[in-house]
Specification:
The complex is a heterotrimer of chains A (246), B (637) and C (212).
Chain A lengths: L2 E7 L8 E7 L8 H15 L21 E2 L2 E2 L21 E5 L8 E3 L2 E2 L2 H8 L21 H11 L6 H5 L6 H13 L7 H15 L9 H5 L7 H15 L1
Parallel strand pairs in A: 1-5
Antiparallel strand pairs in A: 1-2, 3-4, 3-5, 6-7
Chain B lengths: L11 H11 L12 E5 L3 H13 L2 E5 L17 E2 L11 H11 L6 H21 L24 E2 L5 H18 L3 E4 L2 E9 L2 E9 L5 E5 L2 E4 L20 H8 L4 E2 L4 E8 L10 E2 L9 E5 L16 E2 L1 H5 L9 H13 L11 E4 L1 H7 L1 H19 L8 E10 L2 E2 L12 E3 L17 H23 L10 H19 L6 H16 L5 H21 L11 H25 L23 H4 L1 E6 L8 E6 L14
Parallel strand pairs in B: 1-2, 1-9, 2-5, 9-18
Antiparallel strand pairs in B: 3-4, 6-7, 7-8, 10-17, 10-19, 11-12, 11-16, 13-14, 13-15, 15-16, 19-20
Helix pairs in contact in B: 1-4, 2-5, 2-11, 3-4, 4-11, 9-10, 13-14, 13-15, 14-15
Chain C lengths: L1 H18 L9 H12 L1 H30 L16 H4 L1 H26 L5 H8 L3 H28 L8 H29 L4 H6 L3
Helix pairs in contact in C: 1-3, 1-7, 1-8, 3-5, 5-7, 7-8
The chains are: A alpha+beta (246), B alpha+beta (637), C mainly alpha (212).
């Protein structure tokens, strides 16, 4: 298959950036989107042009490193998959494909398609944990957790922190990301002691980072590679309101 | 080099307790005076950094990723072992110890393995307390499953994401220490050298991957938790960035490298479909429970599998191993597949695959049952290959996915450089020549949460430390060397990309140092690798500069080290004239084609010592003693 | 926004209930009485203040949120297919809200101000009759109410999401109630200008003069 690529090129965070068009030829429909970029990069290196920088690592949809806005969709067409899981057969032969970095104020572009998502780490540092001291804990079975609750917690914990929710949201809101962690820990008995301060601190940090507000569009849920439900956002809202009232 | 494994005296079940008592402690008020550098934030690194921070040390944590949570521990699917005996099926510390030593084909240190089995129960408790959402049964208690052929159910799991959930647990512990300021995290920093002053590891030199700056970091001890080196084969189930640079640079500074040739191959991966392919994806081994493996009887048969009649199919595993059939162990299944493809019976566009057929199982059990058992795996396969495995057989091929070898460490997890510790897959320690399923997560967390935090204190409490700053001559010198090295790489200005060199190296490694190894092949690899390395240093092309985010440069540095490590791996494989676990020498096999150990000659750890550029490495042997689990030949009859 | 939004929804329900009196075929007698009651009752007058405050608060916070959200993405996407994943109603709240605000100004100017502030020489019923005799005026009302429907289609359930009251097992009941608010109520309101324009139009002169 052949494609015309329109890729965002930006040298560093201070560069203005622009789109550059490339042609790639003879791409297998079974190749992943990132492998198609690999082919382009080898070709660019041969020609003495700078290869396109993009974040990636595990290439099986679990590490959360990759993330490209492809044809106006976070992680490209389709649902429930990260960019690395996207195969070229999802596109038409000779299609023009637009590839852009995640766009959000708290995700500054470092180079080309690489953005800095350390704002997510800072939100996690602001209480996204249970203060369990190493070694000073009871036996694993001392805290029974009903299966439905454990399953719900697992559903929320499946977040890979890729940032597609922010990228897809018209408001660049990080609510789904934050809500997934708040929900996961608020559901579990282990998370109860710090429940109130956790949601307050994480939301405050989220706001301080400059993420937008949630307007309940649910674009985040639609583009989440792990299909995290927006009901987690509802749960976080309750948590937040209760924390503020009490 | 004199290797002292420092295994404590006493009966095996008392060794760790006695040793813990004998370890010197650092006064709680003094802990804040020590700085510990932890490189890597996977299960081992994150848990170590968090636990050390919690104890009161100042911790500097480094990752070439943007966030600690991206480490490749995240990809582990199956689970984590612990002999809790929650299933009431007779599991015990002793049984896990026994299984691990035996599974490692009697090439691991008994004392280390026993300790691993001992602390593994605490790991589960710790993870539960952190909020890891392990699977539960209907009573609300932790659920277990049996995994990787184990006869007891001791594997804890969190859906298919156990690695991710455990890493997020360790990451959250790390976040907590970052929150209170005990751990400082440095993102997008790649360790390129270790600084040794007066024989002690005192710091690291990192490249800031965003600005290109070569930065020195000073500490009182250095912990490497940088994972395995499976990517030396180019195609593996490892993540793209997984690399050996940190341990390799440490090796060149004096750390011994233990058993580099022990590499594990996983039989059921989705095969390569073309030259463009960047990685291989693993599918659970459980598929072999119901799938039948076959190739066409005719060489180079290009018919669709559905069109090949039953009589023209060769169910070779069932034919060669009638007793075990499709359920022969990982290494046997892997080697058989390779042999079939080598002989020209391989299928698919590349001829490097065999069929895994569920046709008979669907007929026998019905589609619903198969869907229930393997639905998610079938979906994954469909997604990647665009073929429906309910209708047409899957194509599978073995792939490298774990390296048991790594930097040599003593019982305290300290390498042969005083003050430099190595934890997780990066060290050679607990798995011997072959790792059991669901044991990698266990070892990473055991090292980080429950071993290193104790042993490192002993070193700090008993060693003298000279006041050192980054202005010190050794730091300046190493920093200069690293800067020079990086610039040299950028200025070659040849014609080939690092990616192309990596692919070529991978092919040499896979063809000659892969699943089945023999003298001729290994010698061929040993002749080819230095040539390729030479070409690399004269014909590499990196566009862009060293003073910016340059992913080609990052890749080139990693490939440069793989080009050296690959040679050591082949060298080790050549010297080990026996077959054991993940190391199979075709010259040493039983009549049934099984691995044949040579305990009289090779019951030792091969700890290789760097002797200088273009010089043969020096072999140091640590003899292994088996007092509790007596070596025996594996058999599937 | 959610609390003010839901409060405004309750007002809509009450307002419609009252306005249905316009359909009573008694020449507007009951409606006049009702209108008189609204103007004179002190409790209603107090609620009125809360109502105005809510409208202002709802609109202002909507504007602030909109501004913040725009600032959260300083560089726009070259291509952005938000439409693939979201409903039209959720994407146009700012537009529908703005039009509704404009509508409110006109609506208050046409009815509230003459009836409650400046005083009107005709009764409430006749004022309604007179105003809705204009095609433009009635048409604008119908359009505004269509946008209100869109606004509420997103807004009603959105308020429950914001308050964390969704996803708790009674979502189907909630969507049934939401249907009343986003469909039945705006339809009820829209039926008034339609009814008056077609069946209760004032004299021909008023029809042509009553462009506003």
């Amino acid at each position: 298959m052949n494609f015309k690529l329109k890729i965002w090129r930006q040298k560093n965070s201070t560069d203005k950036g622009r789109f550059v068009e490339y042609l790639v030829k003879n791409i297998s429909p079974d190749a992943s989107f990132l492998e198609m970029l690999d082919v382009l990069n080898v070709e660019l290196t041969r020609r003495g042009e700078e290869p396109v920088a993009f974040d990636h690592d595990c290439r099986e949809g679990i590490c959360g490193s990759c993330g490209i806005m492809i044809n106006g969709r976070a992680h490209g067409p389709g649902h429930g998959a990260a960019t690395c899981e996207l195969r070229m057969r999802a596109f038409q032969d000779n299609e023009t494909i637009v590839a852009e970095p995640w766009r959000a104020k708290p995700f500054p572009v470092l180079r080309d398609l690489v953005v800095d998502r350390s704002s997510f780490d800072r939100i996690m540092v602001a209480g996204g944990y249970i203060s369990a001291k190493t070694g000073g804990v009871p036996d694993g079975n001392a805290i029974p957790i009903s299966k439905p609750i454990a399953d719900q917690a697992m559903d929320a914990a499946a977040c890979i922190g890729c940032g597609a929710c922010v990228a897809a949201c018209p408001n660049s809101s990080a609510m789904l990301f934050v809500a997934a962690k708040v929900s996961h820990l608020a559901l579990l008995p282990q998370g109860q002691p710090e429940r109130k301060s956790r949601v307050e601190r994480m939301v405050a940090q989220m706001d301080a980072e400059g993420f937008g507000n949630c307007s309940n569009n649910y674009a985040c849920e639609a583009e989440c590679p792990k299909e995290i439900s927006v009901s987690n956002i509802a749960r976080m809202n309750t948590e937040y309101i209760l924390a503020k009232i009490r | 080099m004199k290797l002292n494994s420092k295994i404590p005296d006493g009966p095996i079940e008392k060794k760790w307790d006695n040793h813990r008592f004998n370890l010197k402690l650092v006064n709680p008020a003094n802990k804040r005076k020590y700085t510990i550098i932890v490189v890597g934030t996977g299960l081992a690194g994150a848990s170590a950094a968090a636990s050390l921070g919690e104890l009161g040390y100042n911790v500097l944590s480094f990752s070439y990723h943007e966030s600690p949570r991206r480490a490749h521990s995240i990809a582990a699917q199956g689970g984590i072992n612990a002999p809790k005996n929650y299933s009431n099926d007779g599991d015990s510390i002793w049984r896990l110890f026994y299984d691990t030593v035996k599974g490692g084909d009697y090439r691991a240190r008994e004392a280390n393995v026993y300790r691993l089995a001992q602390v593994s129960g605490s790991i589960i408790d710790q993870c539960v307390a952190q909020g890891v959402p392990f699977a539960r049964d209907y009573a609300g208690y932790l659920d277990n499953r049996s995994f990787g052929g184990a006869q007891v159910s001791r594997t804890f799991y969190a859906r298919g994401q156990t690695g991710q959930q455990l890493l997020l647990g360790a990451y959250s512990a790390l976040c907590r220490q970052m929150d209170v300021g005990k751990v400082k995290f440095f993102a997008r920093r790649e360790m390129l050298d270790v600084v040794v002053i007066d024989g002690q590891a005192r710091g690291v030199i990192c490249r800031n991957l965003v600005t290109g700056a070569i930065e020195p970091y000073v500490g009182d001890a250095v912990v490497l938790a940088t994972g395995g080196y499976g990517n030396v084969f180019y195609l593996s189930t490892n993540a793209k960035a997984s690399n050996a640079t940190a341990i390799w640079r440490a090796y060149k500074r004096g750390a011994a490298f233990g058993n580099p040739c022990y590499t594990q191959i996983h039989p059921t991966c989705i095969p390569q479909s073309g030259e463009y392919q960047s990685k291989l994806t693993l599918m659970s081994e459980s598929l072999r429970n119901d799938g039948r493996i076959w190739v066409p009887k005719k060489k180079g048969d290009t018919r669709k599998p559905e069109d090949i009649p039953e009589s023209e199919r060769d169910y070779y595993l069932e034919r060669i191993y009638p007793a075990f059939g499709n359920l022969v162990p990982r290494d046997v299944a892997s080697r058989a597949a390779k042999r079939m493809c080598d002989d020209g019976y391989g299928v698919g566009s590349t001829g490097r695959a065999v069929y895994l057929d569920f046709g008979a199982a669907i007929k026998r059990l019905g589609k619903n049952v198969i869907e229930e058992r393997y639905g998610n795996l079938f979906d994954m396969y469909h997604e990647i290959s665009a073929e429906d495995p309910y209708r047409t057989p899957m194509r599978i091929y073995p792939a490298v996915h774990y390296t048991m070898g790594g930097l040599w460490v003593d019982y305290n997890l300290m390498s042969s450089i005083p003050g430099m510790y190595v934890v997780g897959e990066a060290n050679f320690s607990d798995h011997g020549a072959n790792r059991l399923g669901a044991s990698a997560l266990m070892q990473g967390l055991a090292d980080g949460y429950f071993v290193l935090p104790y042993t490192i204190g002993d070193y700090l409490a008993t060693s003298k430390f000279k006041q050192v700053s980054a202005e010190e001559a050794s730091f300046k010198e190493t920093q200069r060397e690293v800067g020079h090295y990086v610039k040299k790489m950028v200025s070659i200005n040849g014609k080939k990309s690092a990616e192309e060199f990596h692919r070529e190296l991978g092919k040499i490694m896979w063809d000659n140092v892969g699943m089945g190894r023999n003298k001729a092949g290994l010698k061929k690899a040993l002749a080819k690798i230095p040539k390729l390395r030479e070409e690399f240093w004269s014909n590499l092309k990196i566009v862009g500069t060293a003073s910016e985010l340059n992913m080609e440069l990052e890749k080139a540095g990693r490939v440069a080290d793989f080009l050296e490590l690959g040679e050591l791996l082949a060298y080790d494989a050549l010297h080990r004239e026996e077959s054991c676990g993940g190391h199979f020498r075709e010259e040493h096999q039983t009549e049934e084609g099984e691995a044949k150990r040579n305990d009289a000659k090779f019951s030792y750890v091969a700890a290789w010592e760097y002797a200088g550029a273009n010089k043969a490495p020096i072999l140091n042997k640590e003899q292994l003693k088996f007092e509790y689990v007596k070596p025996s030949q594996r058999s599937y009859k | 926004m959610s609390l003010t939004g839901l409060f405004l929804c309750t007002f809509l329900a009450e307002h419609l209930a009252g306005n249905l009196l316009l359909f009573v075929n008694d020449g507007g007698e009951m409606y006049e009485k009702y209108s008189e009651f609204l103007v004179s009752n002190p409790v209603i007058r107090t609620i009125e203040i809360v109502l105005f405050a809510s409208i202002i608060w709802h609109a202002l916070s909507g504007f602030v949120v909109w501004l913040q959200n725009r600032r959260a993405r300083p560089v726009k996407y070259e291509e952005y297919r938000l439409g693939d994943n979201t409903e039209l109603a959720s994407r146009m709240t700012m537009l529908s809200g703005s039009v509704i605000f404009f509508f409110l100004v006109i609506h208050l100017g046409s009815f509230f101000v003459p009836l409650r502030v400046t005083g009107s020489d005709v009764g409430a019923y006749h004022l309604v009759q007179e105003k809705f005799s204009s095609l433009w005026f009635s048409g604008f009302y119908v359009l505004a109410l269509l946008l209100l429907a869109y606004h509420l289609r997103h807004g009603f359930q959105s308020a429950f999401q914001t308050l964390g009251l969704r996803g708790k097992g009674y979502d189907s009941i909630l969507s049934a109630i939401a249907f009343i608010f986003w469909f039945v109520i705006p339809l009820g309101f829209a039926s008034i200008p339609v009814y008056f324009y077609f069946f209760r139009r004032a004299s021909g002169a008023a029809f042509t003069l009553g462009l506003l």
